[in-house]
Automatic annotation (TrEMBL):
Methyltransferase among keywords: no
Gene: tsf
Family indicated by similarity: Belongs to the EF-Ts family.
Keywords: Coiled coil, Cytoplasm, Elongation factor, Protein biosynthesis
Compartments, as annotated in UniProt: Cytoplasm
InterPro entries: EF-Ts_dimer_sf, Transl_elong_EFTs/EF1B, Transl_elong_EFTs/EF1B_dimer, Transl_elong_Ts_CS, UBA-like_sf
GO CC terms in record: cytoplasm
Domain of life from the UniProt record: Bacteria
Domain Translation elongation factor EFTs/EF1B dimerisation: 110-271, 276-374
Main location: cytoplasm
Region (Involved in Mg(2+) ion dislocation from EF-Tu): 119-122
Coiled-coil residues: 2-40
Protein name: Elongation factor Ts
MF GO annotations: translation elongation factor activity
């Protein structure tokens, strides 16, 4: 009996030992699993904290470390450091603000920036204006054409991204450095710019001429063309820069617009708009112009005008035909627009006159125009609806 009891006890010891070994292995596996899970949670927490505060990755990691992984405490920790307050506003729409422009004294370089705020009131704030000046100075100095590069630069002994967050915290509104463009001239080029007094529109125009001496005489023209581009909002330099598909699409829209206007004009008993057959110079090829010229000659003949004076009449009539059939060009192309300082001339005519004056051909190489908030969908608050919703 004793032997059987002894054997049973030995079996129990062996079973306990085996179970202990199994538990140790399972504990090791569980420890590895917990460690992995902890790492995953930590990564998730960092992302959650960054999404909620927009603070830097290292700042989020340090905050979570200081707060033992408690995300709410970490948010308070960042707020106390002045970092979370700025980020809390990151989802607010910033569609106000200002356009900034800097042009080198010799016309060799120019920069446009757009800095947005939530309200026009803050855009007039001294701290905001200082921020814009610093952005413009950095973009001009470093020849920036994007805002991502700006965020990595150093300003006042800190990374610009952190400097911006501090400014947001101080000013109390979301601020977005929306865009920056810089033009640097090549030989025989000059850039001019214009910024409207309200700082809501601005533009730069790059001109090229035959030699440096002639180019130097284009400073005023470059500035005036900058004014043209800012105020008249052309999309391209010439009709040659528009695709045939775009012209066909816009022709349909222009004709529909004129026909709608004619309905109202007819109701008022006023002269109707002429519905054009064409809307761009690109449609007026040699065949079209020759056919029009033949038609005009026939009209002159039928009217009894002496053939000897047709040459004096036809150029003006052809010019009028072109003017009537290039509405799209006049709206969207810089060269075909009426010149803002003399609307009896097109920009192209003014450039040709200046070319003759200086004895050298002038070319518009490029232009860039900014309008504050263009393309940003502004949120329109309905206060009455908001109150009504809270009452239910």
């Amino acid at each position: 009996m004793k032997d059987e009891t002894k054997e049973a006890l030995e079996n129990v010891k062996q079973a306990v030992s085996a179970l202990g070994a199994q538990l140790k292995e399972e504990a090791k596996d569980l420890s590895k699993e917990v460690s992995t899970k902890t790492q995953e949670i930590s990564a998730k927490l960092v992302k959650q904290l960054r999404d909620r505060t927009d603070a830097g990755i290292m700042e989020c990691k340090n905050a979570l470390k200081e707060c033992a992984g408690n995300i709410e405490e970490a948010i308070d920790y960042l707020r106390k450091k002045g970092l979370s307050k700025a980020a809390k506003k990151a989802d607010r729409i910033a569609a106000e603000g200002v356009i900034g422009l800097q042009v080198a004294d010799d016309g060799s370089k120019a920069t446009l920036v757009e800095v947005n705020s939530e309200t026009d009131f803050v855009a007039k704030n001294e701290a905001f204006q200082e921020l814009v000046e610093n952005v413009l100075e950095l973009a001009f100095k470093r020849v920036l054409n994007d805002t991502e590069s700006l965020m990595q630069l150093t300003i006042q002994n800190q990374i610009f991204e952190e400097y911006l967050k501090q400014k947001i915290a101080i000013i109390g509104e979301n601020i977005v450095i929306r865009r920056a463009n810089t033009i640097v001239c090549k030989p025989n080029q000059i850039v001019g710019g214009y910024l409207h007094h309200n700082k809501k529109i601005g533009a730069m125009v790059l001109l090229e001429c035959g030699n440096a001496e002639s180019t130097a005489k284009l400073r005023d023209l470059a500035k005036f063309l900058g004014m043209q581009a800012a105020s008249m909002r052309p999309k391209v330099i010439s009709y040659k820069d528009m695709s045939s598909e775009f012209i066909v699409k816009e022709k349909i829209a222009i004709i529909a617009e004129l026909e709608r206007q004619n309905e109202e004009l007819q109701r008022l008993g006023k002269p109707l708009n002429r519905i054009p057959e064409y809307v761009s110079r690109i449609e007026l090829d040699e065949n079209v112009l020759n056919a029009k010229k033949d038609s005009l000659c026939l009209q002159l003949k039928q009217s009894g005008k002496p053939e000897t004076i047709w040459d004096k009449i036809l150029p003006g009539q052809i010019e009028r035909f072109i003017l009537d059939n290039t509405l799209l060009d006049q709206r969207l192309t810089l060269l075909a627009q009426p010149y803002i300082l003399d609307d009896k001339k097109t920009v192209e005519q003014v450039i040709l006159e200046k070319s003759k004056e200086i004895g050298n051909s002038i070319t518009v190489v490029s232009f860039i125009n900014f309008e504050l908030g263009e393309g940003i969908e502004k949120k329109v608050d309905n206060f009455a609806a908001e109150v009504a919703a809270q009452m239910h």
